[in-house]
Amino acid sequence: MSAAAALQRSPGPVADESGQRSGGRQFFNAGTDAWMVKVFPGEFYVTANPDEVLVTVLGSCVAACIRDPLAAIGGMNHFMLPHHSSGTWGEDLRSARFGNFAMEKLLNELVKAGCARERMEIKVFGGANVTDTRNAIGSENAEFVLRYLADEGLRCSAQDLGGTLPRRIHYYPTTGRVVRKLLGTSERYAIDRQEHDYGNRLLHQQPSGEIQLFGETE
After folding, report:
1. Annotated active-site positions, please?
2. Mean pLDDT of 183-210
3. Which of 171, 212, 209, 202 is nearest to 20 (CA)?
4. Cα-flanking dihedrals φ and ψ of residue 133, to 5°?
5. Where are the chain's structural domains?
6. Which of 75, 134, 179, 210 is deepest in the core (most CB within 10 A)?
7. Alpha carbon distance 212, 151 (integer Å)
8. CATH topology of domain 3-7+14-202
C-alpha cells in the first residue's frame, strides 16, 4: 500500500475525552508497512486491526496499553490527572483526561469488543516528573494507575513509570509489542509546556485533543 493511500483511509475509532468518537490522526508508514494512529490526551483507541500501531508521547501523563491475546484486540488510553477534583478543568466528571474514567472507559470498550478481563495483558507507561515542581503530577498519575489495577484485581504485566524524561510509545495491540523511546532534554521541556498549555485551555473550553506532540513522520 502506498503512502498516498493514507489520505483515502477512513478514520479509526479514536474516542475523545468525553467518550465520543472523533476523527483519527492516522498516516501510513511505508517503512514499517503499518498505519500509525496517534492517541492524544483525553482519548482512547480500541482496534483489532493487525496493521495498526498506536502512538503517543507522555510527559507527566500515563497511558495504559491493554489487550486480550486470545481475541487479538487491544487498545490504549492517555490521561492527564488521576481523578477529577472540584474546580479543576471544569465540572465534567466523565472525561477520559482523568485516570479513573479513562481506565473504566478503555476496559469497558475492550470487553464490549470481545475481550475477557481475566485474559487481559496490561502494560502502563509515563508518569515522569518532567519539571522541578512540588506537585509531582507524574508520580501521582503513576501511583494512581497501579493502585487502580490492584483495586480492580487486574495484573500489570509490564510497567515503565516515573523518572524525569518523556517517552514516546509505539504499541502493537494485536501482538502486545511495545517500543519505548526516552526523549531528550529539549523534548522534555517542550512536552511539559504543551501539557501545561493544554491543561490551561481545559479551564476555559472543552478540549479537542489536538495537542501537537507528534511529527508527521515516524
Report:
1. 61
2. 58
3. 209
4. -125, 145
5. 3-7+14-202
6. 75
7. 34
8. 60s Ribosomal Protein L30; Chain: A; (3.30.1330)
Chain Cα centroid distance, residue 59: 11
Judged by DSSP in three states, 216 sits in: coil
DSSP codes joined into one string, 56-120 = EEESS-EEEEEEETTTTEEEEEEBSBSS--TTSS-S-SS-TTBHHHHHHHHHHHHHHHT--GGG-
pLDDT tens digits, one per residue of 133-164: 667 889 999 999 999 999 999 999 999 999 98
* Size of the chain in residues: 218
Q: Which amino acid is at 43?
A: E
Query: Using CA atoms in the order 147, 184, 176, 2, what is the torsion angle rounded to 10 degrees?
Result: 140
Average pLDDT of the residues of the chain: 77
Q: Please report how the helices 137-151 and 99-113 are oriented relative to each other, as an axis angle in degrees rounded to 10.
A: 40
pTM of this structure? 0.77
